[in-house]
Amino acid sequence: MVKVLFVCMGNICRSPMAEGAFRAAVDATGLTDRIEIDSAGTISYHAGNPPDRRAQATAKKNGIDISRQRARQVRDDDFHTFDHILVMDHDNYRDLMARAAPEHQDRIELFMSYAPDHPYEEMPDPYYGEVNQFDLCFEAAREAAEGLLAAIKARHM
């Protein structure tokens, strides 16, 4: 079983959409029973809350229901549990690298590195932006999810 964790700051916008996009890609290939997927935030402020309503609406518009997800903060055991920890931006990367033991730091990567043809190096945070920014993030997440899935299949399957 390959375990994948998506991480943003609050776990209510970017990482839930990334989780949803990746889950849809995994489901479409019939690998659901071989890949475990979760998301978390670097802060606990939104713990227990569902994704932002705009993130839910954007995912739903794209045929994906993320309404049952609940925000949680990254736990220390996540660094041991997950094979791949995909962060949305450089701040998330620095936060997790500071927390992870050296032997787990190679599991932490920028999610957008799996979408090399996309113009974003980081997943832009749509929280304070307009609704269309959620659309842009979701499209970026879908592209990176496809790249990540291809890499996981090549490496683990």
Automatic annotation (TrEMBL):
InterPro entries: LMW_PTPase, Ptyr_pPase, Ptyr_pPase_sf, Tyr_phospatase_low_mol_wt. Pfam families: LMWPc. The active site is at 8 (nucleophile), 14, 125 (proton donor). Keywords: Hydrolase, Protein phosphatase. Its EC number is 3.1.3.48. This is protein-tyrosine-phosphatase. Residues 2-151 form the Phosphotyrosine protein phosphatase I domain. SMART domains: LMWPc (SM00226). Gene3D superfamilies: 3.40.50.2300.
